[in-house]
Structure formats: C-alpha cells, structure tokens
Amino acid sequence: MATDAAGLGRGRAAAFVAPALLLIAAFLVFPALWTVYLGATDYQLTGLAAADPQVTGLDNVERALDEEEFTHSLGLTLQFVIGSAVLGQAVLGFAIAWLLRERGGALRRLVEGLVLLAWILPSSVVAFLWIALLDRDDGTLNSLLGTPGTAWLVEHPMASIIVFNIWRGTAFSMMLYAAALGTVSPTQLETARLAGASGWQQLRDVVFPAIRGHILTNLLLISLWTFNDFTPFLLTNGGPGDETEMIPVFIYKTAIFDGELGYGAALSVLMLLINLVIALVYVRLLRRRDRAPKRTAEVVKSP
Amino acid sequence: MSAIDLVRLSKVYPGGVTALDGVELAIADGEFFALLGPSGCGKTTLLRTIAGLEEATGGAVLIGGDDVTALPPGRRDVAMVFQDYALFPHMTVTDNIAYPLRIRQVGGAERRAKAAGTAGELGLDALLERRPAQLSGGQQQRVALARAMACHPRAFLLDEPLSNLDARMRLEARTFLKRLQRELRITCVFVTHDQAEALALADRVAGMEDGRVRQVGTPAEVFRRPANTFVASFIGSTPMNLLEGEVREGGRVAVGPAEVPGGPGAGALAPGDPVVYGVRPEYLTYAGEPTGGAFSGEVTVVENLGSAQLVTLDGESGSIQVVVDEDTEVAPGTAAWAVPRPDRVLLYRDGALVP
C-alpha cells in the first residue's frame, strides 16, 4: 500500500531513483573509496608493487607528514590561496564591482568584458599568452618595463603565478559582488550619507553587513578552486626546482612521474581533508545566525 | 530648527527629463509642510534635493539662511526618514538610534545614554536590544524617527512616512507624528501622494504637478479654494465634479441643459464665457423630485462610505457625484437631482480659479 503523495510505493520510488544513485556510486563514491584504499597501499605504476600491492596502513600518511616536500608544497599552496584568491581576486573583484556600481554604458561593459575574457579563455591558450608575456628574451612585459633579460618565471616564480591567477580569476568575484551590491538597500546607504558617513564608513556599516553571506560564499568557492588549481603547472612546471610545486602539482609528479600511485592517493586524501576543513570553517562562519541577517543564513543552510 | 527656502530650484536629469522646474518655496521655521502630488510630479526629487541626495541643476537651497546647495548631505544637518525606514538590520535598536552620533564620534557611553533617552520619548524603552526584524512596522517607524531625532537636526525630511503601515496603524501613526512635531517644534517637510494625509498632518500644503508647485496654502485653503483644476481634482477624498459650462445672465452657468448658480466667481465673467464648473460632491444636495437650478440624471452607481453614500448620476450635463447621507434611500436606475450649494461653487477659466 502506497503511503506517499505520488502513490508510487517504496519499490517503484526506489526504481526511479536507482539510475541516478548508480551513476553517483560509479563515478563519485567508488573512485573516492578506491582512492582511500589505494592510499593505504604501496601500489606503484610499474614493478613488483604494481602487480601485487601490499596494504601498508597509515605508512603513506606518516611519510607525507614527515617529508619536507609535502609541508613545503602545502605552504606554497597556502601562499597561493591567500595571495591570489583571498587577497587578490576577492579584493580586486570587489573594488571593480564597487567602482562600476553606478556606472552604466560603455565603460562598464568594456571593463566587464575584459575581465570576463580572462576568465573564459581556455587554460592552455592563457598559459601560452602568459609565457609570451613573461618571456626572458622577447617578453612583452620586459619591453614594457624596459627590463630586458628578466626571467620573471625563474626569478619571481610564486609572485608571477599569483599575479597570473588574480588576472585569471577576478571575474567571478567581480560578478558575484556586482550582483550582491544590487541587493544593498539604497535607502540604508543614503541614511548613512545623511548621517555624514565617509565612503569607508558606508562600506563598513551598510555594505559589508548586507553582503556578508555573499562575501563568505565567494571566499569559500575561490579558496577551494584556487587550492585545487592546476593551471600554474602550465606556466612553471612546478619549478624552478620545487619553488612553485603546490599540492596538486606535487601529487601529479609523485603519482605519474615517480609512479608512486599509493603515496599519491594518500596525498590526495589529505588534500581532500584540507578542502573539507576550509569548507567547514566558512560554513561555520556563515551559520553564525545571530550576526548575519536571516536571508544570508538561509542561503547556506544546506551545504 | 530652521526655515528652508528654495530659490528657482531646478533639476534636469541627464537625458533631458525635467524633474523640478524652477521651484520657489519658503518653509517657515517649525512648520509642518507637505509636498503633495501624483507619482512622477517631482515631489520626492524635491525632498531629495533638499537633503542633498540629488544635486540641483539650477537655483539654491537655503536652510536657516545658509546656502547649502553645494554641501554634501552629511553636512546639511538634516535628517531623513525613508518610506522603508532604512534601519540597519544587523544593529540593535540602540545602535540604530545612536548611529548618527557614532559617525560624529560621540563616545560610547554618552551615545547609548542619548539613544536610550530618545527611545524613551518615543515609547521604545522595552525594545532597545531588539533587531529591526523583531519589530512591527509601527515600531520600526518610531526607531527611524528616533534615529532622526537623536542628533537634533535643523529639519526633518519624511518620504511617504505612513505608506508602509496598514490602515489602522496609519491613523495612529499620523496622530503620533503630528504630536511629535508639535512637541519638538522642528521644521518638517514630508512627501505624500495621499491628499487626506497631507490635509491632516500639514500646516501648509504644496500641490505639485510636472515639477512645478501649483498651489501653496493651508489645508483649508487648498480644500476650499483650489487655485486650479489640477489641485481641485487632486484634493478631497471624493474628487470634485468638474464640468464644462458657459456663463449666462444673472450669475448663472449653463452646464448642458441645466442652468445652475455660478457662485461668487460668476460676477467677474461676461455672459458667453466658457468655464469649468467645479463643485465638491459634499456640497451638492440630493433630491428625488424635480428641482430648479439642479443637475439631473439617472442614478448609476451607489457606493457606501459608511456614514454616507457616494451616488453617481449620469445625465446630459455629464457624470456627477453626490454625497448623500446614510438615511436617504437611493436606488440605482431611478431619476434624481443634485442641487449645488451656491457659496461653494468654484469657476475655472483656462484651468485657473476665477476669484
């Protein structure tokens, strides 16, 4: 006897959901569990361990935490996330959205168009353009600055890819903040202006509280994307040496070049855990209902 | 507390829309002044230009004799209460009220004491720790008023102060607002599209149309003697009957087949002059029997107003509305007559009142 609103009964309802569940199981759950399993083995790409991998438990994780390479690449990744996403994209994106908020017409479309272009171009094309820009001998930047012979990607590799990623990803923050600023009550801003509030005071007292939820959601998304971003590899190849070998690159090199699939899988699991921690921190911040207006708290209720 | 003077004030938006067209107004110190008009007449633009939220493209705004036309809103020393109250949702009532003081860098303890004092005057003592979302519409409006009062501005500017309240709250808030203004003796300018609100609250009313002030006067003046057909049609809870007519001998006016008394203005006109004949529905007497000097027609609509009924007569003179007291039986479809009260008849020539 069917007790549900649609009158399907348990069996038929399950049949409807089954294909979707199967796809999720096959392409999401199974690979994730398989990675966890691989991370607990000494599986190799070639050789004896490839044919007959042994379960080694938490050895891989211990090795990662002991090895300086992993902490080194974790440090670089944090630099990259904080420098290019949190400080770079979010701040620059907000600044552009704020400055353009009351402007219409050609200027706004031009700026938005240029910023968006940087975002939608394929990574391989963008990487090629930036290599040409930063080239030691015939690079555009060197001729613009009059600094011939400066090998930017060798002398300042982290700074170069941070600037690159700011350029590449600001569009998302800009668009999100532009939409968010549209929800800020104009009369609240005018009340602040009438009270004599400066530009900064208007931002602090009206704009930021009103778009707090948007800011945190944006930071969450761009932090995770930047953390997992692989594009800098196309510019620096993780080098020179290991100076830009951030976690995704480190895992790639470990698993594919060195063939240590088990160790690479363990690193991937660690990376997933770090992502989870980042996400949890932001969701915690968002859930602090008492400080956030209801509307923003509602949005993130279901992660 | 200060007088506000507007001198040939103009506002033309980029793109050529004229919102204000040479507005001249003198608002006295401590006056409760209404800007009344239909939407798009420029009344809100005028208020925002006084506040400094819009820049005038011509003319000057003087507050207390000082030319403030070039000053930013924060330095004009006026407070504005918006239609949606514009309370900061993340701040408590205390913090909202104290906000202007905080911007003026008044110390925390003094600020809270002043906010609590102002809140006390408006009966908000019990709500100081609440947030705006936890308040009713009427309470939110009081918080917005308290915030405006807290820094003792020279003038209050109110944008449609009552229109976000439900009908019952609106009457209560209206009385409250008028009492508050009397007690504070502060110059107060408010914008409304509701003529009843303007008549009830204001000391003087300015009727606006297309960016111009069409008449300024006390509520009694604009109600009894609207200076032009625009104000005549806008003021009054039931709109004035305005009918095309022609002056006849003996101070009478012909409106269609009816010949009715022309009122005080008829003497100034010559027979044959075309006029618009204006009489309020309240100043017409209903008759069920044929009567001389009356409009005749068939009763088509009867609207019950509670203590009275609004009856529409359709006849050869045009469509005429009459207020009939509640005891008179009026049946749609019957013939009826409406007798104008001669001393309340107004004649308009080319849109302007014949004095």
From TrEMBL, chain A:
The chain crosses the membrane at residues 12-34, 80-101, 113-133, 166-185, 206-227, 261-285. The keyword Transport applies. Gene3D superfamilies: MetI-like. It is found in: Cell membrane. InterPro entries: MetI-like, MetI-like_sf. The keyword Transmembrane helix applies. It comes from the Bacteria. GO terms for biological process: transmembrane transport. Keywords: Cell membrane, Membrane, Transmembrane, Transmembrane helix, Transport. Residues 75-282 form the ABC transmembrane type-1 domain. It is a multi-pass membrane protein. One of its GO terms (cellular component) is plasma membrane. Its main location: membrane. Pfam families: BPD_transp_1. PROSITE patterns: ABC_TM1. Belongs to the binding-protein-dependent transport system permease family. This is Sugar ABC transporter permease.
UniProtKB/TrEMBL annotation, chain B:
PROSITE patterns: ABC_TRANSPORTER_1, ABC_TRANSPORTER_2. Keywords: ATP-binding, Cell membrane, Membrane, Nucleotide-binding, Translocase, Transport. One of its GO terms (molecular function) is ABC-type transporter activity. One of its GO terms (cellular component) is ATP-binding cassette (ABC) transporter complex, substrate-binding subunit-containing. InterPro entries: AAA+_ATPase, ABC_transporter-like_ATP-bd, ABC_transporter-like_CS, ABC_transpr_MalK/UgpC-like, Mo/tungstate-bd_C_term_dom, NA-bd_OB-fold, P-loop_NTPase, Transp-assoc_OB_typ2. The keyword Membrane applies. It holds the Pfam family ABC_tran. This is ABC transporter ATP-binding protein.
